[in-house]
């Protein structure tokens, strides 16, 4: 996923910070990669130039939560339900 968005990030001088460790999960690798790539692409699209995007993984019982955090404006409160 990082490789597929790296050129776009470089154009905007956005630094991508990856988790210090990996976590093995069960799932469809193509679908997982597509979702993470889309999240990262959106983060890059809306993040200001020369900013940072951080990918983090949180284990939660039988699940892993993937967080993509950027320095962009975020989703306006009135649009979050849609």
Word description of this protein:
- The chain has two helices and three strands.
- Helix content is 34%, strand content 23%.
- The protein is globular and about 35 Å long.
- α1 runs parallel beside α2.
- The chain has 82 residues and is an alpha+beta fold.
- The mean pLDDT is 92.
Short description:
With about 80 residues, the protein is α+β, with helices and mostly antiparallel strands.
Key structural traits:
82 residues; alpha+beta; 3-stranded mixed β-sheet
Give the helices and strands, then pairings:
Blueprint: H1 2-11, E1 15-17, H2 29-46, E2 52-60, E3 63-69
Parallel strand pairs: 1-2
Antiparallel strand pairs: 2-3
Helix pairs in contact: 1-2
Percent of residues in helical segments? 25-40%
Order of helices and strands: HEHEE
Q: Biggest sheet, in brief? A: 3 strands, mixed
The number of E-state strands comes to 3
Strand arrangement within the widest β-sheet reads 1-2-3
> Into which percentage range does the β-strand content fall?
15-25%
Total helical elements = 2
Class based on secondary structure composition and strand pairing = alpha+beta
The mean pLDDT is 92
Give the termini distance in whole angstroms.
25 Å
Report the radius of gyration as a whole number of Å. Answer: 13 Å
Q: Uncertain runs with pLDDT below 50, 5 residues or more?
A: none
Shape: globular
């Amino acid at each position: 996923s990082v490789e597929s968005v790296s050129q776009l990030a470089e154009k905007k001088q956005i630094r991508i910070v990856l988790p210090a460790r990996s976590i093995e999960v069960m799932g469809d690798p193509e679908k997982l990669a597509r979702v993470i790539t889309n999240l990262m692409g959106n983060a890059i699209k809306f993040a200001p130039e020369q900013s940072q995007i951080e990918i983090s993984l949180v284990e939660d019982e039988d699940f892993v939560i993937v967080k993509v955090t950027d320095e962009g404006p975020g989703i306006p409160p009135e649009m979050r339900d849609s």
